[in-house]
Amino acid sequence: MTYDLVIGDRAYSSWSLRGWLLFDAFDIPVRTHLARLYSDELPAMLRDYPPARTAPTMRTPDGVVVPETIAIAEELASRHPESQIWPTDPKARAVARVLAAEMHAGFGALRSHCPMNLRVSYTDCAPPDAVLADLARLEQVWEWGQGQTGSQTWLCGDYSAADAFYAPVASRIATYNLPVSARAAAYVQAHLAHPSFRRWRAMGMVDLPDQPFYFRDYPRRDWPGPKPLAARAVEGVAAENSACPYSGKPVTHVLELSGRRFGFCNAFCRDKTVSDPEAWPAFMSVYLS
């Protein structure tokens, strides 16, 4: 049985990113339903998910509607203890919950001045004092979490819900080139390289048109995460594979990578792969075979 998850634009909806990571990063099957922000699409879709008003909203396989990422995390952890969404060690679990709660409720200046935008990266955004104060607090709680749990890469040992909650903040630091310490920058880089984050961003690059609300007139730079392999969309249906690596359906759209052609069942499957081929194990198994 599969969960349903209502999400907004992947490039911009930070709360949706958190919610989806709670599934993908912990191998819990989910069926996503995408609605464009700042349009009638999301309210119309959520009419089928009472009492929800925001994305993300989850519906469990038995029909219970669960809005809000804190509630989603707790419900998934209860239903899937084997996934270890929260750390199994009691102390680490308590620390993770403290960190997630602060992220869920805080850092308003950073959220406002630096809205999530996964499609660009800037050289500078002139962060005001309130944003710098939020960054200082982030570094304080990240260092506290790692110190309490002895973790080197993630906040509380293995990747947990606490890290999923801070993924959108890590993306903001990357997008706006915000000033942080070397230790905090290493934590940001761990997020940018995480397979689930790479998949979300790859889809976010192509799933819906740009949202003008998120445009900022700052000088741009290359995205500071892992550099994708150089793939491109091409015309025709001639390809090495006859079936889409994701769905198994016949090939209708093709990309080219390293002089080789690979096919997919629709434009979105192809384009998300063009965005970051290495983010997709099913494609890489075909490419490397």
TrEMBL record:
Entry protein name: Glutathione S-transferase
SUPFAM superfamilies: GST C-terminal domain-like, Thioredoxin-like
Every GST N-terminal domain range: 12-78
Glycoprotein recorded as keyword: no
CDD domains: GST_C_3 (cd03194)
GO MF term (any one): transferase activity
Domain of life the protein comes from: Bacteria
Cited Pfam families: GST_N_2
Keywords: Transferase
InterPro entries linked to this entry: Glutathione-S-Trfase_C_sf (IPR036282), Glutathione_S-Trfase_N (IPR004045), Thioredoxin-like_sf (IPR036249)
Transmembrane intervals: none
